[in-house]
Amino acid sequence: MEKLDARIRNHDREIEKMCNFHYQGFVDSITEFLKVRAEAQKLKNQVTDTNRKLQLESKQLVGAMEELRQCRLQQWNISATVDKLSQCLPVLEMESKLREQMKSKRHYPALKTLEHLERMCLPQVSHYRFCKVMVENIPRLREEIKDVSMSDLKDFLESIRKHSDKIGETAMKQVSHQAGRGGKERDRSPLRSEPSALALG
User: Coiled-coil ranges per the record (predicted)?
Assistant: First the structure.
């Protein structure tokens, strides 16, 4: 029993020696671990902060890209609108010209403008609704020009009929006046005075 106790005490001393031998290394390891832990926490905080900043920058970048997309879409819409207006503008100008010619009762130019509008301008933009309305109105406009021109012609002929006597009288006076001037000029002509001179001789 004493031998067993002695052996136990011997092992305890060896364990104590071993613990004393490795204790400083253990303490150093714990100290190093605590330092690593602090550095790891610091690194974690840096990663978290970097991630937060990255998320914020990403949101701003996504917002900027969306604004850019909207701007490009608006630019495309503006370009398409300008192109369509450029196609429609000649039609509107011709229509305005037609209205002005009809207003000033220039019937023949109005008919030519209407024909050009119908054959050349409107077919190029026939898919627009206002052009379809204009196409539908062309027969009415042509008939309107025809009616107005016929009315003006009737008024003109009626005016001639009412003033035909005065016109005839004025015409006769002009003819008589021209005839009188012609006779005087013949009397003054050297060819007519030459035979008289010969007769006197």
Answer: 33-60
Q: How far apart are CA 111 and CA 119, in angstroms?
A: 12
| Element holding 117 (H helix, E strand) | none
Query: What value does the CA radius of gyration of the chain take, rounded to a whole number of Å?
Result: 57
* Rounded Cα gap, residues 6 and 135, in angstroms: 125
Q: Are 88 and 126 in contact (CB under 8 A)?
A: no
Q: How far apart are CA 201 and CA 190, in angstroms?
A: 16
Please state the pTM of the whole predicted model: 0.47
Contact 89, 77 (CB under 8 A): no
Q: Do 102 and 125 form a contact (C-beta atoms < 8 A)?
A: no
- Residue 184 — φ and ψ, nearest 5°? -65, -40
